[in-house]
Automatic annotation (TrEMBL):
This is Ribonuclease-like. SMART domains: RNAse_Pc. Residues 1-26 form the signal peptide. GO terms for molecular function: nucleic acid binding; RNA nuclease activity. Belongs to the pancreatic ribonuclease family. It comes from Terrapene triunguis (Three-toed box turtle). The keyword ATP-binding does not apply.
Length: 146
Protein backbone atom coordinates (compact mmCIF):
# COMPACT_ATOMS: atom_id res chain seq x y z
CA UNK A 1 0.00 0.00 0.00
CA UNK A 2 1.53 3.28 -1.13
CA UNK A 3 1.22 6.54 0.77
CA UNK A 4 -0.87 9.19 -0.97
CA UNK A 5 -0.70 12.97 -0.96
CA UNK A 6 2.09 14.87 0.79
CA UNK A 7 2.95 12.12 3.30
CA UNK A 8 5.93 10.72 1.34
CA UNK A 9 7.39 14.20 0.97
CA UNK A 10 6.85 14.95 4.66
CA UNK A 11 8.39 11.63 5.69
CA UNK A 12 11.41 12.19 3.43
CA UNK A 13 11.84 15.68 4.88
CA UNK A 14 11.92 14.31 8.44
CA UNK A 15 14.41 11.60 7.50
CA UNK A 16 16.71 14.12 5.79
CA UNK A 17 16.39 16.57 8.69
CA UNK A 18 17.32 13.83 11.18
CA UNK A 19 20.35 12.80 9.10
CA UNK A 20 21.48 16.42 8.77
CA UNK A 21 21.16 17.01 12.53
CA UNK A 22 23.13 13.85 13.30
CA UNK A 23 25.92 14.87 10.93
CA UNK A 24 25.98 18.46 12.13
CA UNK A 25 26.20 17.52 15.80
CA UNK A 26 29.07 15.12 15.18
CA UNK A 27 30.96 17.61 13.04
CA UNK A 28 30.76 20.38 15.63
CA UNK A 29 32.17 18.14 18.35
CA UNK A 30 34.95 16.96 16.09
CA UNK A 31 35.63 20.56 15.04
CA UNK A 32 35.96 21.66 18.69
CA UNK A 33 38.37 18.80 19.38
CA UNK A 34 40.34 19.64 16.22
CA UNK A 35 40.61 23.27 17.34
CA UNK A 36 41.80 22.16 20.80
CA UNK A 37 44.43 19.91 19.22
CA UNK A 38 45.59 22.66 16.82
CA UNK A 39 46.16 24.95 19.79
CA UNK A 40 47.75 22.50 22.22
CA UNK A 41 48.94 19.22 20.66
CA UNK A 42 52.49 18.63 19.44
CA UNK A 43 53.59 15.00 19.45
CA UNK A 44 56.33 14.14 19.00
CA UNK A 45 57.70 17.49 20.09
CA UNK A 46 58.82 19.50 17.08
CA UNK A 47 62.54 20.21 16.97
CA UNK A 48 63.24 23.94 16.56
CA UNK A 49 65.64 25.16 13.92
CA UNK A 50 68.88 26.88 14.92
CA UNK A 51 67.53 30.41 14.35
CA UNK A 52 64.02 29.91 15.70
CA UNK A 53 62.97 28.85 19.17
CA UNK A 54 60.33 26.20 19.67
CA UNK A 55 57.70 28.64 20.94
CA UNK A 56 58.16 31.11 18.10
CA UNK A 57 57.94 28.29 15.58
CA UNK A 58 54.78 26.80 17.11
CA UNK A 59 52.86 30.03 17.64
CA UNK A 60 53.61 31.43 14.20
CA UNK A 61 52.94 28.15 12.36
CA UNK A 62 49.58 27.77 14.11
CA UNK A 63 48.60 31.44 13.91
CA UNK A 64 48.23 31.71 17.68
CA UNK A 65 47.98 35.27 18.97
CA UNK A 66 47.92 34.45 22.68
CA UNK A 67 50.87 35.57 24.74
CA UNK A 68 50.96 32.29 26.70
CA UNK A 69 50.56 28.86 25.11
CA UNK A 70 50.80 25.30 26.39
CA UNK A 71 51.68 22.37 24.13
CA UNK A 72 51.00 18.74 25.11
CA UNK A 73 53.41 16.03 23.94
CA UNK A 74 51.28 12.86 23.96
CA UNK A 75 49.21 10.80 21.54
CA UNK A 76 45.77 12.21 20.71
CA UNK A 77 44.03 9.09 22.06
CA UNK A 78 45.79 9.50 25.41
CA UNK A 79 44.79 13.18 25.65
CA UNK A 80 41.15 12.46 24.73
CA UNK A 81 41.15 9.53 27.18
CA UNK A 82 41.17 12.14 30.00
CA UNK A 83 37.49 12.65 29.14
CA UNK A 84 36.72 8.99 29.90
CA UNK A 85 38.73 6.48 31.92
CA UNK A 86 41.97 8.49 32.01
CA UNK A 87 40.54 11.34 34.07
CA UNK A 88 38.73 12.17 37.28
CA UNK A 89 35.60 14.35 37.34
CA UNK A 90 36.19 17.97 38.29
CA UNK A 91 33.87 20.98 38.07
CA UNK A 92 31.04 20.63 35.53
CA UNK A 93 32.30 19.01 32.33
CA UNK A 94 35.93 19.37 33.37
CA UNK A 95 38.14 16.36 34.04
CA UNK A 96 41.60 16.16 35.58
CA UNK A 97 44.04 13.67 34.10
CA UNK A 98 45.16 10.74 36.21
CA UNK A 99 48.55 10.59 34.52
CA UNK A 100 51.05 13.39 34.08
CA UNK A 101 51.84 14.75 30.62
CA UNK A 102 55.01 16.18 29.13
CA UNK A 103 54.22 19.82 28.35
CA UNK A 104 55.94 22.89 26.99
CA UNK A 105 54.77 26.23 28.37
CA UNK A 106 55.51 29.24 26.16
CA UNK A 107 55.36 32.72 27.73
CA UNK A 108 55.77 35.89 25.71
CA UNK A 109 58.47 38.08 27.23
CA UNK A 110 58.02 41.77 28.05
CA UNK A 111 59.79 42.76 24.82
CA UNK A 112 56.85 41.09 22.98
CA UNK A 113 59.17 39.52 20.40
CA UNK A 114 60.64 36.51 22.20
CA UNK A 115 59.29 33.62 24.25
CA UNK A 116 60.49 31.78 27.31
CA UNK A 117 60.12 28.02 26.87
CA UNK A 118 59.58 25.90 30.00
CA UNK A 119 59.35 22.10 29.78
CA UNK A 120 57.14 20.57 32.51
CA UNK A 121 55.50 17.31 33.49
CA UNK A 122 52.05 17.99 34.93
CA UNK A 123 48.50 16.77 35.11
CA UNK A 124 46.03 18.64 32.92
CA UNK A 125 42.41 19.71 33.37
CA UNK A 126 40.35 19.73 30.19
CA UNK A 127 36.78 20.67 29.37
CA UNK A 128 35.07 17.68 27.74
CA UNK A 129 32.18 17.44 25.33
CA UNK A 130 30.94 14.07 24.01
CA UNK A 131 34.02 12.32 25.44
CA UNK A 132 36.44 14.61 23.56
CA UNK A 133 38.77 17.30 24.88
CA UNK A 134 37.63 20.70 23.65
CA UNK A 135 39.51 23.17 25.90
CA UNK A 136 42.59 23.12 28.11
CA UNK A 137 41.47 24.64 31.42
CA UNK A 138 44.72 24.53 33.40
CA UNK A 139 47.75 22.50 34.35
CA UNK A 140 48.07 21.04 37.85
CA UNK A 141 51.24 20.79 39.88
CA UNK A 142 51.90 17.31 41.23
CA UNK A 143 51.51 17.19 45.00
CA UNK A 144 52.75 13.99 46.61
CA UNK A 145 50.65 12.71 49.52
CA UNK A 146 52.07 13.30 52.96
Amino acid sequence: MALKGSYPTLLLSFVLLGAWLALASGQSQSWNNDRFLRRHWDNPKTQATTNTTYCELQTSARGLAKKNNIFIHARIAVINNVCTTGGRPSIGNQRQSIRRFRLTVCKLNADRSTYTETPLTRRIVVFCRNKLSVRLVRIVRFRPSV
